[in-house]
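User: Let's play a game. I give you a shape written as C-alpha cells, and you guess the letters that built it. Ready? Here's round one.
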C-alpha cells in the first residue's frame, strides 16, 4: 500500500482465488470468485486431507499462517494484491489442520470442512487487517475442504 494514500481511498479486496493439494489426488483446479461470491476447494466428506493450500486476493494484500500436522503453526506469509501464497507441503502426507488469514483492506471470510465435524455452521470473518481462522488445532483432525468469501462489508457476508 502506498503511504501517501489517504484513509478510505485504498482499494479493498474484491476477488479471491484458491486451490488445494489433496492427499492421493494432487492439486485441485484453481477456483476464483468475485466479491459477494464464495469459492470452495477440496473434497468435503471425501476422507482425504488437505496438505497444502494456495491463495491469492485481488485488491488488497493478504497474510496467511497454517497449522500443520506434527509441527504446529508455521511462519506467517504475506503477499501483495494478486500474488499467490502457498502454505503446507504438497505430497508430504502431512495435513493442514487450520489456517489464519487477513486482508489489509476489506472483508475476507472463511470456512472449513473438518474430519468428523463437517462444515462449520458459521463463516469466520476478518475486516481491515483483523485475523480470523478456520479448522482446528490440537485435535488431530484433517481439513478436507475450505471455502473463502470476499465481502463488500461484513454485514453483507
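Assistant: Ready! My guess for every position:
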Amino acid at each position: 500500500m502506498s503511504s501517501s494514500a489517504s484513509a478510505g481511498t485504498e482499494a479493498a479486496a474484491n476477488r479471491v482465488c484458491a486451490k488445494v493439494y489433496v492427499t492421493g489426488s494432487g492439486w485441485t483446479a484453481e477456483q476464483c470468485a468475485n466479491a459477494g461470491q464464495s469459492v470452495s476447494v477440496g473434497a468435503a466428506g471425501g476422507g482425504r486431507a488437505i496438505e497444502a493450500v494456495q491463495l491469492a486476493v485481488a485488491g488488497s494484500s493478504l497474510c496467511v499462517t497454517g497449522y500443520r500436522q506434527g509441527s504446529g503453526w508455521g511462519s506467517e506469509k504475506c503477499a501483495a494484491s494478486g500474488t499467490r501464497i502457498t502454505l503446507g507441503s504438497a505430497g508430504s502426507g502431512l495435513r493442514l489442520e487450520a489456517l489464519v488469514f487477513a486482508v489489509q483492506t476489506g472483508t475476507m471470510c472463511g470456512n472449513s470442512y473438518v474430519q468428523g465435524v463437517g462444515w462449520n455452521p458459521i463463516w469466520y470473518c476478518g475486516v481491515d487487517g483483523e485475523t480470523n481462522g478456520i479448522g482446528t488445532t490440537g485435535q488431530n483432525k484433517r481439513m478436507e475442504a475450505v471455502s473463502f468469501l470476499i465481502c463488500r462489508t461484513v454485514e453483507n457476508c
